[in-house]
Amino acid sequence: MAYEYREVVCPYCEHRFMFNKGVDGEKYYEYTDKTTGKILSSEICPKCGKTVIAIDKVLEGIREDDDRVVTHGIRGL
Questions:
Q1: Residue 67: how many CA atoms within 13 Å on its side-chain side?
Q2: Buried b (16+ CB within 10 A) or exposed e, 8-21
Q3: Main-chain dihedrals φ then ψ at residue 53, nearest 5 degrees
Q4: Using an 8 Å Cβ cutoff, are 32 and 75 in contact?
Q5: Sheet order of strands, 5-9 included
Q6: What is the mean pLDDT of residues 17-46?
Q7: What pLDDT score does 77 carry?
Q8: Quick one: how far is CA 38 from the chain centroid?
Q9: What is the mean pLDDT of residues 5-11?
Q10: CA 56 from chain center: how many Å?
Q11: What is the pLDDT of residue 62?
């Protein structure tokens, strides 16, 4: 599987950057959208260094502690 990128806006500092949706097998926390049950991707903002979660809306990043997100340990070990 190849890397997948999309543009997103950081919810902490509003920096716009290319978000790496990741590759299967990488180690990362598993985030799930409460409303859809879909697994969400995470990336570190290159400007502020905080973890940004991607949801399906274009250019929208959300915080780790957002009410729409459930966190489940680490995936890909």
A1: 0
A2: bbbbeeeeebebbe
A3: -105, 140
A4: no
A5: 16-20, 5-9, 59-63, 51-54, 39-44, 28-33, 69-75
A6: 77
A7: 46
A8: 12
A9: 89
A10: 10
A11: 93
pLDDT digit string (tens) for 38-70?
888 888 999 999 999 988 777 889 998 999 899
Domain boundaries, the chain: 5-75
**What count of other Cβ atoms lies within 10 Å of the Cβ of residue 34?**
11
At 37, the pLDDT band (50, 70, 90 cuts) reads confident
Render 14-77 in DSSP notation, one character per residue: --EEEEE---TT--EEEEEETTT--EEEEEE-TTT--EEEE-SSTEEEEETT-TTEEEEEEE--
Q: For the chain, state the CA radius of gyration.
A: 12
Largest CA-CA distance found in the chain, in angstroms, rounded: 32
